[in-house]
Automatic annotation (TrEMBL):
Source organism of the structure: Actinidia chinensis var. chinensis
Listed SMART domains: RAB
Full protein name: Ras-related protein like
Gene3D superfamilies in the record: P-loop containing nucleotide triphosphate hydrolases (3.40.50.300)
Family: Belongs to the small GTPase superfamily. Rab family.
Superkingdom, natural source: Eukaryota
NCBIfam families in the cross-refs: small_GTP (TIGR00231)
């Protein structure tokens, strides 16, 4: 069974994390969305994203993590 969740919002904010490889962008995203931290994380290939709904006026923020390597 497939469930589709329709979310209505007035504003959509996106945060894009950009920086060199190995500086901690993925861990910032992990801490922000799941309140976790991983010392042995691997390099991101391409793009990864996660969503967290903030309780401040019901706003939705999507945080995106990018690969720090130039080839991506």
């Amino acid at each position: 069974m497939s469930h589709k969740v329709d979310q209505e919002y007035d504003y959509l904010s996106k945060i894009l994390l950009i920086g060199d490889s190995g500086v901690g962008k993925s861990n910032i995203l992990l801490r922000f969305t799941r309140n976790e931290f991983c010392l042995e994380s691997k390099s991101t290939i391409g793009v990864e994203f996660a969503t967290r709904t903030l309780q401040v006026e019901g706003k939705t923020v999507k945080a995106w993590d990018t690969a720090g390597q130039e080839r991506y």
